Amino acid sequence: MTDRILRQLPQVHLYGQPSWHEDAFVIGNRTGLEALRSAIDKALRSGADEALAFAIDGEGYGIKVIELRDAIMDEMPLPYTDPDAAEMTRRPWPDVVREFLREWSISRGIGKDF
Which residue has the higher pLDDT, 40 or 102? Predict the structure, then answer.
């Protein structure tokens, strides 16, 4: 893709926390951040939404935005990306979240297994 076309796409890069007390980053162009904001607003109204985004190399992907109750959040695995930190906190996603994502993906014609 040409640079001009890439600049018009919603570009978002998500950089997760490597480990405890380290920062995470959401970095994107205006179009990408507005798409993410729209997905967050819709998720707050309806429970879930998705933003389409692209990495700087032109590869597209979906950012799923899901609102969960606190009790379910307590069961979620910690999001650390460093192998040492992730290993200490490794656990599967709660069944209720996996089932929701499965049904939601099927309803959108994606059909992925979570």
Answer: 40
